[in-house]
Amino acid sequence: MNKSSDLQTFLSDHWQLFLPLFILQMVLMIVALVDCIRSERTRGPKWAWALVILAINIFGPVAYFVAGRRRD
Known about the structure:
mainly alpha
């Protein structure tokens, strides 16, 4: 058996474990992007925060909400 079929077998047998994480990641990413676009000001350029949100899976949106969002 090759590595590709091993991975496919594992994912097909355990997809229920990964689905909630995938949904959480997508919801966080969408909410963070919408908030970033709608906000007038952020701590740093909006384009940079958009890249962080999109590129760093779950931690990107969390980093935006903790460090990039301005509340003034």
